[in-house]
Amino acid sequence: LSARYLLRFDDLCPTMDRERWERFERLIVRFRLKPILAVVPDNRDPELVLEAADPGFWERMRRLEAEGATIGLHGLTHLCEAHGRSLIPLHRRTEFAGVAKQTQREWIRAGLAILEGYGLKPRIWVAPRHGFDVLTLEALREEGVELISDGFARRPFRMGGLVWVPQQLWGPVVKANGVWTICLHANSASEEDVRRLETFLESHAEEFVSVDEAVRSGVQSGPKMADRIFHGWVLARIGLSRWRKRFGLKKK
Ligand SMILES: [Zn+2]
Fold first, then answer.
1. Using CA atoms, how far apart are residues 64 and 21, in angstroms rounded to an integer?
2. Could you list which residues have their CB under 5 Å from ion ligand 1?
3. What pLDDT does residue 239 have?
4. Which of 137, 161, 165, 219 is the most buried (most CB within 10 A)?
5. Dist. CA 131 → ligand 1 center (Å)
6. Cα 74 to averaged position of ligand 1 atoms, centre (Å)
7. Does position 244 have pLDDT exceeding 90, yes or no?
């Protein structure tokens, strides 16, 4: 079985950079992709306010969902003020990790209600800055969310009562097998990032799947030993590249 790829777009909200988003939306339409659209229900993060709110934003999301995209719940406000340690420890401050269980549950419920109010069906959790803890998993389950987009495994797996669709890449990379989620941020993606994705799609579009197709390809009962090693290796590599940047050992 060859590799399968899934696209995930983060930080979608009415005040995102519309022109930059449209570069990706054109690719979604042209290649009939079914990505994860990670929407911020009630954005309060000034970094995601790049222009006046687009009155057509929600209709745009509804249309893409109708064509096969899966709506992701990308936190509630995207304000990252909590200091707790996340299960995927890539950032010091996040929105959810370390927050009291009941509060997390209220935020998740509020986020789902807002998106549902706009006619969307949020089905997968996409934590802002990968920030979530075991209490988040419990709160998600209690609010009826069964899917999560995160983790550094090679295939979807079941853990903590949820199905994890791993997210391991931040740009297209050819893989021999496994299910690979490529996370993109339209607000900050360069022309070069868009071109790279387009070139990759021209030869690999057939290998792109939806969340449901990724899950149908098989869910392991838990992360396998090889996945635990892979997880540790990815975190170590990210840590090393930050360390190199901090000490100026890397060009960029
Ligand atoms: Zn985000």
1. 13
2. 10-11, 128
3. 73
4. 165
5. 10
6. 7
7. no
CB 156 within 8 Å of CB 215: yes
Hey, what are 85's tokens?
């340690």
Task: Please list, in sequence order, all residues whose beta carbon lies within 8 angstroms of the beta carbon of residue 111, skipping any fewer than 6 positions away.
Answer: 41, 42, 73, 75, 76, 122
DSSP string, 144-205: T--EEE--S-SS-EEETTEEEE---BSS----SSSEEEEEE-TTT--HHHHHHHHHHHHHHG
Consecutive H or E run containing 35: none
DSSP 8-class letter at 73: E
Taking the centre of ligand 1 as the mean of its atom positions, its distance from the CA of residue 1, in whole angstroms, is 32
Query: How many angstroms is it from 185 CA to the middle of ligand 1?
Result: 8
- The pLDDT assigned to 246 comes to 65
Residue 135 pLDDT > 80, yes or no? Answer: yes
pLDDT the model gives residue 46:
95
Compute the distance from residue 166 Cα to the ligand 1 centre, in Å: 16
What's the whole-model pTM score? 0.90
Query: Which value, in Å, is the radius of gyration of the alpha carbons in the chain?
Result: 17
Distance, C-alpha 50 to centroid of its chain: 20
Whole-Å CA distances, 101 to 17, 97, 117, 162, 203: 33, 10, 24, 17, 45
The CA 52 to ligand 1 mean position distance, Å, reads 19
Pairing state of beta strands 179-184 and 36-39?
unpaired
